[in-house]
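re: that chain from earlier
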Amino acid sequence: MKKEDCFYLGKIVKKYSFKGELLAKLDTDEPELYDHLDSIFIDLKGNLVPFFIESSQLHKSDLLRLKFEDVDTEADADALLKTELYLPLEFLPKLEGDKFYFHEVIGFTVKDKKHGVVGVIKSINDSTAQALFIIDKDGVEILIPMNDEFIDKVDRKTKTVHIKAPDGLIELYTQ
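^ sequence. v structure.
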């Protein structure tokens, strides 16, 4: 399994018991969706390795308590601390309407109400305070904040994100 075929679910943050149990912080608004998994991929030195889950349960709302098969000691658990958890993309719940996953809109065309076609989304920058569409327009990079006020519609059929950019924003990049 390759990382590009998966989504980041969370990170193992600490040990829970001396019997190899671990706590994972999930990066989701709905942790209960991932409470009864059979297996999960763990990033070990850049390789996704499948681990089978003996038991799991939610712990303090956004933490998932995990017991993996063949992880039975504190030393086994120590080896997995701070590792990232991944699941195949097909495990993501389907989103409707104008809600979308970041990976889902890569390659979509962005159309602005005033300027028409702005370009194609080549990536999303979510390392800033506000996530940004990184759009390619004929070799020029345009950054548009992913703000609900700016996004009019996400059309999955035509692979288009319709926006209403603030006055002057697109002109900053195109003049």
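Residues 102-174 form a domain with the SH3 type barrels. fold (CATH 2.30.30.240).
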